[in-house]
């Protein structure tokens, strides 16, 4: 089988996918002699964006500056729009509209009085 190449196979696409999904490498290395363990090394490395790391609860190294814009965006709760599939702040998506495609939730429509034929019970 020959490898397949597509238009999205650029280095930018690979890096974006890695940062979006994250990559974790776990390795256990043991050196034994006659059944006796002489040396044991455990390695855990993670490569992810701030947002992905915060979403999966990865710990950040000591001294990480948590006052940056990237950090605030990472810890902000986000949801995926059911129409366009893009991520937006949860509060904005549920109470207002999707900034990407304009989709409105039923809660936002009810709050704006746009649902016709239904009245709120008193």
TrEMBL record:
Record's subcellular location: Gas vesicle
InterPro entries the UniProt entry points to: Gas-vesicle_GvpA-like (IPR000638), GvpA (IPR050530), GvpA-like_CS (IPR018493)
Keyword field: Gas vesicle
Superkingdom as given in the UniProt entry: Bacteria
Family: Belongs to the gas vesicle GvpA family.
PANTHER family: GAS VESICLE PROTEIN A1 (PTHR35344:SF4), GAS VESICLE STRUCTURAL PROTEIN 2-RELATED (PTHR35344)
Protein name listed in UniProt: Gas vesicle protein
The species this protein was found in: Promicromonospora kroppenstedtii
Lineage summary: Bacteria, Bacillati, Actinomycetota, Actinomycetes, Micrococcales
